[in-house]
Write a structure and sequence with these properties.
294 residues, Beta Polymerase, domain 2, 2 domains, 13 helices
Length: 294
């Protein structure tokens, strides 16, 4: 099998990061896992993040967060483009079981760990960890969307939200990007594909209770005959590996279909959130909708 050299580079970044964490944490590090597209497939050197999951031994220490952050910062500071996309999730068996607070392993990432995590170092540490409920996955995704796509940070929640990505989506700019395709395109294909495909992935998780690759989420979305923006969603998936070469056509597609995609996603979630009695989140999504159509 011939490996893409960029994928090998991503694997090298993971290996170097794990080595650094083993040195910094010693026996406190039980296991390290590749997560995301480097675990379940679909990695794109153009747009994908490099997701690493760490399971530390109990008890959790007040020093752990500083150590995790310091090592991640040192790895990103090497100046390698892919290395700057390193995103680290971590916890202990007790925090992953929900018995104690701490760490950084939101629901969707915990599910990814359970279903797709690829052991890189240490010994298997997933036995007995519970699967997040469908409602937990859905609500966590809604909170994440508000924080990073709606420009509406919710007090006390930011540290718990997943960094699928350490998105590259600035909170204050996301609404403007939906409304102004020139602004969005100017910020690069990674930003474009994330802004278009995140709602598609959130809808997939809401419908199925699964993590879902971009490919699976897009296929699920396109199977819905009533869903708008099919051409844009299909194009965004292709742009993950081959950026658009016809910028005027891409601009026009984004102008015509990004807002309908977001309104479809938001209206879907308003209905679901209301049915779950999530009144605060329902109001936040309603305000988000109003900002988009203002």
């Amino acid at each position: 099998m011939i490996l893409d050299v960029r994928v090998v580079s991503a694997e090298t970044i993971l290996t170097e990061a794990v080595d650094a964490y083993q040195s910094a944490l010693g026996e406190h590090l039980l296991a390290a896992y590749a997560l995301g597209s480097l675990a379940h497939g679909g990695f794109s050197a153009l747009v994908s993040d490099i997701d690493l999951g760490l399971v530390l031994s109990d008890p959790i220490s007040s020093r752990d967060a500083r150590t995790i952050q310091a090592v991640a910062d040192a790895q990103r500071a090497k100046g390698i483009e892919l290395g700057e996309r390193l995103s680290v999730f971590w916890g202990t068996p007790s925090t992953l079981r929900g018995e104690l607070q701490g760490g950084r392993f939101p629901a969707l990432d915990r599910l990814d760990l359970l279903e797709n995590g690829r052991l890189l170092a240490g010994t298997e540490a997933r036995a007995g960890l519970p699967r997040p409920s469908a409602n937990e996955l859905f609500i966590t995704g809604a909170e994440f969307a508000l924080e990073y796509l709606a420009g509406a940070p919710r007090r006390g929640r930011a540290r718990r939200l997943r960094g699928w990505a350490r998105l590259a989506l600035r909170r204050a700019d996301a609404v403007q990007e939906v409304r102004c395709p020139e602004t969005l395109l100017a910020r690069g294909v990674r930003r474009v594909t994330k802004l278009v495909l995140f709602p598609v992935r959130f809808l997939f998780t809401a419908d199925t209770g699964q993590v879902g690759t971009n490919e699976a989420a897009v296929a699920h979305y396109l199977a819905d005959r009533e869903a708008p923006a099919a051409a844009l969603v299909a194009a965004a998936l292709s742009w993950r590996t081959a950026p658009p070469t016809d910028e005027p056509a891409a601009t026009e597609l984004l102008r015509d279909q990004t807002l309908p995609l977001y309104l479809y996603y938001i209206d879907d979630h308003i209905t679901r959130l209301s049915s779950l009695g999530q009144d605060e989140l329902t109001r936040a999504f309603t305000r988000w909708r109003e900002r988009l159509v203002r």
